[in-house]
Amino acid sequence: MKKRHYFFTLFFASILLFTGCKKEDFVVTFHPNGGRGIAVSQPFTQKTAQPLMANPFTHRGYIFAGWNTAPDGVGVSYKDQENVMISANMVLYAQWVPTGDEFTITFHANGGGTGNMEQQIFEAGIPQPLIPNTFIYDGYRFSCWCTTPNGDGQKFENQQNITVSSNMMLYAQWVPISNTYFVHFHPNGGMEAIYSQSFIGGILQPLDTCTFTRHEHIFVNWNTAEDGTGSSYYDNESIKIYSNMLLYAQWEEE
Question: Which CATH superfamily is domain 2-98 in?
Answer without folding.
Answer: Listeria-Bacteroides repeat domain (2.60.40.4270)
